[in-house]
User: Fold this.
Amino acid sequence: MSVFRKDFLWGGATAANQFEGGWDADGKGPSVPDMCTNGSHTVPKWITTAIRPDKLYPSHEAIDFYHHYAEDIALFAEMGFKCFRLSINWTRIFPTGEETTPNEKGLEFYDKVFDCCKKHGIEPLVTISHYELPYALTEKYNGWADRRLIGFYENYCHAIFERYKDKVKYWLTFNEINCGMSGFGAVLGLGTCQGYEGPAMGIETSAQTRLQALHHQFVASAKVVKYAHEHYPQFQMGCMIAFMATYPMTCDPADVVLNQQKMQEGNWYCGDVQVRGAYPHFAKRIWKELGVELKMEPGDEAILKEGTVDFYTFSYYMTNCVTTHEGEQTSGNLMGGIKNPYLKASDWGWQIDPQGLRYVLNEIYGRYQIPLMVVENGLGAYDERSEDGKFHDSYRIDYLRSHIQEMAKAVEDGVDLMGYTPWGCIDLVSASTGEMAKRYGFIYVNKFDDGTGDLSREKKDSFDWYKKVIATNGEDLA
Assistant:
């Protein structure tokens, strides 16, 4: 008998800016990712202030889910998906973010997508803001640095809540909100890149700007969660954290304390606000160390307390080590860090740590005691066609199997785990590098880094393997 609950939400995860395409179709406005060029493992993607004809912007077409949604959702259904995590592209609904009347064509598109999901018995899990801030709000307000974005976000949420109240039950307010704690979050999450041209992951912003912008996102999230609870009691509202677990490199107490502080700053700071409804005790230390003077309006603390989430979701790809001593830096881990000699790494240098997922699940559940969901996890790899014309991605199967096995152990530990949606269930554009070559999917898409490809879809070996996993509720992992 499976350890996973009978209603476990097996599925897959995507983001509009990475797979939807149709970037200017039917009245859609440009979002921040639409201003980002392609890149690679070694060449950074750039953000530009205007669309340059000599540059390739991969989100403009991506894999064109905009015109392939019925085919793609049918393939997800064939795998047996119970749940499909996707995002709504803010600029498809409000092209500049400031409009008061939503774009009907944009609303109609998601009507079709959600209806298609329901036809196949798939529950949508919708990320409201997944790195898709209207670029007009960056140009005019420097993104979330300006408190006025709270109102624009509320207006956007009210429109989609009312439109899809009978089609969507599960909502996430912001994707990987804790990326705002780091420099690269300026482009991805906060949109605090007004007038900036250069490497998207290399922008330099002040901690003051980042943490103030993050506060505005916390207030916005809490306001719409409270609004949803009051107006749509059928909704389940969640947060989403990029969980970046760290280990002390040695048993030197200085390493242990440093690791504790890294975990607090990287993971618990944001999670505590969204789940517990208040800044944690260590926030003042972080503000002092970073030279931040957080400006709060009267009533903000009450809003945070009243707008706590119902469930906690997170992405999990890797772990890092930290130390006060010398150590070899990893080449590819998102947050940098010291190389763990006990772990192997992906083609992109991301260290693979299945056991870390069990550890993380226990840590999160022990802290918050609300249902958890792993909404991103997966292996980015070069997928090469074999001589028989097929894609034999045994390395992806091995990766996912080992992580599901550790999830099962966490459930046996007592963790309330409600679902699992591996990242990039169909090949899509990488958020960090802007490339297609870094593939995650069970479904191969004929699209390449130079923009060529006929967009045809093909099943990889992992497709049938995951189909079997879902059919047996995680019992058959062979």
Summary: The two ends are 16 Å apart (CA to CA). The mean pLDDT is 96.
